[in-house]
Amino acid sequence: MRPRISALVALVTLVLAGFAAPAAAATTTGVYASAVATTTAGARVPVAVSWVSKDAPVTGRANLQKRSGSSWVHVRQFAVVDGVARTWVDPSVTTTYRIRASSASAPSGTVTTGAAGTSRSVTVTVVTSALKAGAPHLAQTSAVLDGTRAPLTVAWTYRGAKVTGAVNLQRSSGSGWVHVRRVSVVDGVASVTGTATGTSLFRLRAVSSDVPGLVTAHPYGTSEEVRLVPGGAVAPASFTVVGAGYGHGVGMSQYGAYGMALDGAGPTTILQHYYTGATLARTATKQLVRVQVRTGTSATTITSASGKARIRVNGTVATEVAAGTPVTIAPVSGKLRVTVGARTWTTSSTTSRVHVEWQNTRYWTGSTSADVTVKVSGADADAYRWGRLEVSNLSGSVNVVDVVQLGDEYLYGLAEVPSSWPANALRAQVVAARSYAWADLGSVSSGCDCHLYDDTRDQVFRGWDKVAEPYYGARWKSAVDATISAEGSSVLTTAGGTRIKAFFFSSSGGRTENSEDVWSAALPYARSVDDRWSKDPDVNPNWRWTATVSQASMRSAFGLPDVATVAVVSRTAGGSADVVRATSTSGATASMSGQSFRSRFGLRGAWISSVSG
């Protein structure tokens, strides 16, 4: 998510003090930066920084400083990776800034002191005209070109709103600027390619916009500059992917809900924020849902704790067993065989199920212990407390399903968020999860003899484990109970009463996704919405992440002989990568969707900010 751009400003370039623009044949060394030069008080102004040493991109750290009287005061230190960086300033009054190099990790021999490590100063002037506060923003993916071409991205907002209009791309020529091409900006974004035969500067000039009265005349309609340095294309050994968020991005952001709850939002406010047009309704608490908890095994053993279990075969009780007595169930000739000690029972047909019940449930009472549970060998949960187990022979393997009430028993075992979270975030999660399951209560799937899987294919169900958590388990159970009344259990529907399959995920890169940008169907309740809480490092552990992809993996994924650069060339309404393009050292290109890129490399999310080699 880019910082808000709230200044339509004259361009000011921060260049190396005393350094003249080199001829095309010369090598380039220095720290360069630029920023729009006019802003409104307190608004963030992006500063684009590039750092090269003899045409090689520098990786290191640099300091932003501002003038105070006759001295320079430190503002912040930031990282420069592969020759580029982004930082920002937000002056309340007219202020002068400069960049000082701090340290360089590559290439060796990079000078960081004296004139070679200090940019010229730039003054950012604070103005009061709001209509002079919305310049287009130009960014590049690398300070050094692979060959002579580099992808450039355009972002244009005015007071947080996306601008549609036209801008001119210009290139520096001598002491002036020449027109390269006109670029159409739609909903605040566009992309264009910069081509340079020597070290070149590019900028944008606003032409027209759909914002009434927005000033597009120079200097207010001029972006920051981008410096491109030609270099030989290379295929790096690996790539570093920088991104944010975790999950598919559709529906409710769980860390976003957490952040909203910390800000004081109630569960209804949270749910109606993330599910567009949703309303709360009630459904019967006692509806049954079938959850697959074990499959694909040649046998399973079921054992009760703190009370008896009983086994029904062919519709009648075959045996009752004491706590701790193992019951083994295995497939045989399309049927099931139950073994307890030396005794065995076999189902009468290939469609017959074995039912396992235990005391102090809806199916059977009688134990002095309040919490009788059963354990299923090989299952992900340690124990199950509610419902009953139904065991079937599914394609020659044992398949175990827990049959529980949708309104409460299923939700008690749902392990999707930490139980230590604020109560309002927990309640929002309960209603979203119940709504998701409620939408699936149609026919039973023949592939699992279930409505839902117990993992991330649907929702993570851990039976007794969730409520049994010390202290926090009781908080989760209370959150579930708080969503149930005499009228039924809370669920989400559309305004017309249609069930909502309330998708949710961990966190985003600042906005959730439209459903059609991730899958295919455009769901009216799954629209892209603000998820700024996911960008807060105090809220979301995945507000920023990095991943490494090898050259071999990258070239294999894109089907190219090698890969020199990878760039996000378009984005979804939610800000994630829509199309990712790879370019080889020969200039050949190949593209894939952002979701495919995420899946291919096992990335946490598709909100990719950069891919560098």
From TrEMBL:
For this protein, the record's InterPro entries field holds: SpoIID/LytB, SpoIID/LytB_N
Boundaries of every Sporulation stage II protein D amidase enhancer LytB N-terminal domain copy: 397-483
Task: Note the superkingdom of the native organism.
Answer: Bacteria
For this UniProt record, the keywords arranged alphabetically read as follows: Signal
Picking any one GO biological process from the record gives: sporulation resulting in formation of a cellular spore
Q: Where is the signal peptide?
A: 1-25
Spell out the Pfam families in the cross-references: SpoIID
What's the name of the protein? SpoIID/LytB domain protein
Native organism: Cellulomonas gilvus (strain ATCC 13127 / NRRL B-14078) (Cellvibrio gilvus)
